[in-house]
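> forwarded from #structure-qc
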């Protein structure tokens, strides 16, 4: 559908709730959030047509590189259907939980319904406004405005976004109660695998790893630059073996899941490619490059 620019960026705004589909900081949940005075990249999604799959599209979160998908988990109390989630993409084939079809419902205002295998992406909390989990409704009898989303294309800017600054020194937080004292600042540690893309845009085979006890993307970049012995690099996430690469421009998700980091040398062909993936067709793997990705959107600046 023309409302989803191939290789571009969009936000999805609920018609009923006037909030946006937001990738939660645990890199797992999906919720409705207001845009706020300083728009978050967590509300930005990168649509791509699935190769050779007709009108299907996949939606990749810009914040953590994971894909909007249907889970098999029931929605929490007060919500309808099953949970929408963020998931890694590890299959070379088109998997049903990731594939969406858009049906326009309002040509004048760019509203659509997003369909997945006889189910519809929906907002919650029309009357109980605190219910903000995004779900997929399995009941098709009532296609209400809770299932309608305005597609807002994001204009691009020639300048990339700066990385968030490193955090300040942690402070000790004292909780109520006798002798209760705690300081929770960093995760318990996650495994970082990193690999360098060569000057021709191909990923090398050597994947060294290290343990990283921080959420800061600026600190992660400094650590990887030290290990790569190169300051002029760009970090990209690969959320799954067959996921598109996406530049890492926000702090790390609040979990301890391992991360695969692709290191792009500044000025290399890979840095000027948006994202790429290896897909299988008749048992032959092709490296597919998409449009320039690193020119991000001024509206998030």
């Amino acid at each position: 559908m023309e409302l989803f620019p191939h290789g571009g960026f969009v936000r999805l705004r609920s018609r009923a709730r006037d909030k946006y589909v937001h990738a939660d900081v645990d890199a797992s949940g999906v919720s409705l959030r207001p845009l706020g005075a300083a728009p978050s990249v967590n509300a930005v999604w990168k649509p791509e047509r699935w190769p050779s799959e007709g009108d299907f599209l996949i939606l990749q979160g810009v914040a953590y590189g994971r894909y909007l998908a249907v889970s098999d988990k029931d929605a929490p109390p007060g919500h309808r259907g099953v949970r929408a989630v963020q998931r890694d993409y590890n299959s070379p084939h088109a998997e049903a939980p990731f594939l969406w079809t858009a049906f326009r419902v309002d040509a004048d205002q760019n509203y659509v319904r997003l369909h997945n295998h006889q189910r519809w992406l929906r907002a919650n909390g029309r009357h109980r406004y605190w219910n903000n989990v995004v779900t997929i409704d399995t009941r098709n009898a009532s296609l209400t405005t809770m299932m309608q989303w305005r597609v807002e294309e994001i204009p691009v800017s020639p300048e990339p976004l700066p990385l968030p600054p490193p955090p300040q020194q942690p402070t000790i937080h004292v909780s109520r109660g006798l002798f209760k004292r705690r300081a929770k600042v960093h995760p318990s540690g996650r495994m970082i695998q990193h690999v360098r893309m060569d000057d021709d845009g191909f990923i090398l085979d050597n994947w060294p790893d290290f343990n990283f006890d921080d959420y800061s993307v600026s600190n992660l970049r400094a650590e990887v630059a030290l290990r790569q012995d190169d300051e002029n690099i760009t970090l990209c996430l690969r959320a799954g073996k067959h996921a598109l690469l996406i530049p890492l421009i926000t702090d790390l998700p609040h979990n301890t899941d391992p991360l695969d980091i692709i290191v792009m040398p500044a000025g290399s062909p890979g840095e000027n490619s948006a994202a790429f993936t290896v897909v299988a067709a008749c048992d032959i793997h092709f490296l597919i490059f998409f449009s320039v990705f690193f020119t991000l959107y001024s509206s998030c600046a």
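QC bot note: Residues 279 and 285 are 6 Å apart (CA to CA). The first helix runs from residue 217 to 228.
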